[in-house]
Amino acid sequence: MNDRTLDISLTVNGARVQDRVEARKTLVDFLREDLALTGSHVGCEHGVCGACTVRVNGEIVRGCLMLAVQCDGAAVETIEGLSDSGEVSDLQAAFEQRNALQCGYCTPGMITAAQDLLRRSKKVPSRDEIREHLSGNYCRCTGYHAIVDAVEAVAQARAGARK
Question: Which of 39, 48, 126, 155 has a beta carbon 3.0–4.6 Å from 108's, enabling a disulfide?
Answer without folding.
Answer: 39
